[in-house]
Amino acid sequence: MSKISNSSRVIVCDGNEAAALGVGLARPDVVAVYPITPQSSLVEYVSQMIADGRLQAELMNVEGEHSVMSALQGAALAGGRTYTATSGPGLAFMFEPYIRAPGLRLPMVASLVTRDLLTPQCVWGGQQDAMSVREAGWIQIYCETVQEVLDTIVMAYKIAEHHDVMLPVNVCHDGNYLSYGVSRVELPDQAEVDAFLGPRDVNWHVALDPARPMAVDPLTGGAGGGGPAMFVKYRKGLCNGMQNALRVISEVHAEWGERFGRFHAPLVEEYSLDGADYALVTIGSMTGAAKDAVDAAREAGEKVGLIKVKTFRPFPVEALSAAFAKVKAVGIVDRAVSFGWNSGPVYQESLGALYRTGRHIPAISFIGGLAGADITAEHFARIIETTAKAVTGAVPDGPVWVNENDQ
User: How do residues 282-325 score in pLDDT, each as one tens digit?
Assistant: First the structure.
């Protein structure tokens, strides 16, 4: 293990450029792109890097997102490291080949610059697009800061290509707030990143070679097709890869911290949780404002903490259960809706983690930040006030819509 690098340089950029710089550091062989708000500038940055010769990669400007993912699957099957990015309706158009990638066990990386979905018409940030595909079989990792976007893009390749995982990874960063938000970023040295990632080993499990033709993704039913047993084998293998990813994600984050001196919580971050009676649960860029609100509440004597979900797929049941075991109530804040449960999706799934604790504590679903709306420290102050009341049993009947009365 090398020592912490002292060769990083400091730049100022937005989240989309940070993602593009992370892509450049990971040196993919093939990039396929189609622009869509709020992702467009990200693929423009990557395209410019290729045009300038700073990234030696094949660029495919195709006619739509369906072709983007289809072309990249061919590249990955041929042994290439790949990259793309999308948002909202672009992800919807990509869906057919998107859901095929995990079953093929392709170690791809794609940014989801998260955006709310139609209708009403919306081009602004939210997490409905990413949450709507949470059962597609992709690993999902959500970023809080611009720096975390860059670092996580690079780590995603090491996670995806690990032989115990071999699954595609979505690095999710919030549209508007992180895609266009500008901040200080440390850009690691290329040689250090090369040493961190090691030799690429993308296609060892398929060995697609024109000199040795083979069928990929055969029909599993019927005589000679393997039947249900083959299908079960594939499904079970994918599930095992997901569970292996919990360990690998933690290992890769630890190695990144040791090499570069920046330690990001791999699965769940506990913030000011020691001595807390209750906690907020956040995901993505809202976490910064939530931490400010928690700090202010702590100074005022409130016993509140925060739990940030970094990895949402695979769902970090054990890590989240351990955090929940420390408090008496939780307020779970989502930037998306689970229509079937009349709640947020993080709330819905957190109930399973709460069940694993063997305790029944109050949990409140807060839904905010839809269609690019702010969730400010003032909003979080009200969320803290409502969650504090839940400790003594005052729990709202349904979800609390954070921006319902905002102008």
Answer: 999 999 999 999 999 999 999 999 999 999 999 999 999 999 99
Domains of the chain by residue range: 9-206+217-260, 269-401
What would the CATH number be for the domain defined by 9-206+217-260? Answer: 3.40.50.970
Given a contact cutoff of 8 angstroms between Cβ atoms, the answer to whether 278 and 331 are in contact is: yes
Q: Do 315 and 349 form a contact (C-beta atoms < 8 A)?
A: yes
Q: Does residue 1 have a pLDDT over 50?
A: no
> What is the chain's alpha carbon radius of gyration, rounded to the nearest angstrom?
21
* CA dist list (Å): 223 to 126, 226, 230, 277: 46, 7, 12, 60
| Global confidence as pTM | 0.95
> What was the pLDDT predicted at 213?
78
Angle CA 22–25–29, to nearest 5: 105
CA-wise closest residue to 166 among 76, 228, 288, 294: 76
CATH top-level class for 269-401?
alpha beta
Task: Give the torsion sign (CA, 154, 157, 158, 159).
Answer: positive
Distance between CA atoms of residues 372 and 174, nearest Å: 9
Q: Are 126 and 216 in contact (CB under 8 A)?
A: no
